[in-house]
């Protein structure tokens, strides 16, 4: 009887181990972070950076039905630091830059439809501005599980700013967002994806735990720095079906993951 019990225990351990290895294999090349801007039918303003609500919904449906689950910035950070963290088998982080009002009116309901979370990187001067997110909308989304991160105060290229300007662009937006979101703001996104050592140091000194670039590829511990996290931009002409197949196979090297500066804002 003891031998049978030992075999059963051994089998249980093997099953758990195999499941863990399978889960790890889903992101052994790194975790993807998707980058969106506008989610709108109106493409007059920055058309290349605009995805229609129907297309946004289709893309999230593909991810959901394939077993992808969104994670928080904190989970990604723990993974990158190789700290203990519980992750889904197919993790993905969704981000939206600049803080357009359509992130609330169009993207937010679709995210909730699929039980997905996201991070919105907000520009300080955009808060309560016409066609941008209001303090009330930020607070509502924050209470519903949407995270917010700093994207500077004025959306200027941080590589051309002086020391005092860098301090203002990083610290002031953090204060504004902490008040609007009623939560800590621990992540930052470099405007235009532009950064240098001074910008990096200013972000860290302002108290952020991580920062996002537009460097292509997946984020992998031991290779990527938490202040230079990679993102995959989604444009109006992105072949998402092809991209999805690569994401599903956890393939990190492809031109589809690259950022096009001419589309930036």
From TrEMBL:
<dbReference type="Pfam" id="PF01522">
    <property type="entry name" value="Polysacc_deac_1"/>
</dbReference>
<dbReference type="InterPro" id="IPR011330">
    <property type="entry name" value="Glyco_hydro/deAcase_b/a-brl"/>
</dbReference>
<dbReference type="GO" id="GO:0016787">
    <property type="term" value="F:hydrolase activity"/>
</dbReference>
<dbReference type="InterPro" id="IPR051398">
    <property type="entry name" value="Polysacch_Deacetylase"/>
</dbReference>
<feature type="signal peptide">
    <location>
        <begin position="1"/>
        <end position="25"/>
    </location>
</feature>
<keyword id="KW-0732">Signal</keyword>
<feature type="domain" description="NodB homology">
    <location>
        <begin position="90"/>
        <end position="265"/>
    </location>
</feature>
<protein>
    <submittedName>
        <fullName>Poly-beta-1,6-N-acetyl-D-glucosamine N-deacetylase</fullName>
        <ecNumber>3.5.1.-</ecNumber>
    </submittedName>
</protein>
<dbReference type="InterPro" id="IPR002509">
    <property type="entry name" value="NODB_dom"/>
</dbReference>
<keyword id="KW-0378">Hydrolase</keyword>
């Amino acid at each position: 009887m003891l031998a049978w019990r030992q075999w059963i225990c051994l089998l249980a351990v093997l099953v758990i181990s195999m499941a863990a290895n399978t889960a790890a294999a889903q992101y052994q090349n790194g975790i993807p972070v998707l980058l969106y801007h506008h989610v709108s039918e109106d493409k007059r303003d920055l058309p290349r950076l605009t995805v229609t609500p129907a297309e946004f919904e289709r893309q999230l449906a593909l991810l959901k039905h394939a077993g992808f689950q969104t994670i928080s910035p904190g989970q990604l950070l723990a993974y990158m630091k190789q700290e203990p963290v519980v992750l889904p088998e197919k993790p993905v982080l969704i981000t939206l830059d600049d803080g357009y009002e359509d992130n609330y009116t169009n993207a937010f309901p679709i995210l909730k439809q699929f039980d997905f979370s996201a991070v919105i990187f907000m520009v300080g001067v955009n808060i309560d501005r016409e066609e941008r997110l209001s303090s009330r909308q930020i607070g509502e989304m924050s209470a519903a599980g949407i995270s917010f991160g700093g994207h500077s105060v004025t959306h200027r290229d941080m590589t051309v700013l002086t020391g005092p300007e860098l301090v203002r662009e990083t610290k002031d937006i953090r204060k504004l967002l902490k008040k609007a979101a009623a939560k800590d703001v621990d992540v930052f996104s470099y405007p235009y994806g532009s950064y240098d050592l001074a910008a990096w140091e200013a972000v860290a000194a302002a108290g952020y735990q991580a920062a996002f670039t537009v460097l292509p590829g997946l984020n992998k511990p031991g290779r990527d720095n938490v202040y230079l996290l990679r993102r995959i931009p989604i444009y109006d002409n992105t072949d998402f079906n092809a991209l999805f197949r690569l994401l599903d196979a956890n393939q990190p090297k492809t031109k589809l993951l690259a950022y096009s500066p001419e589309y930036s804002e």
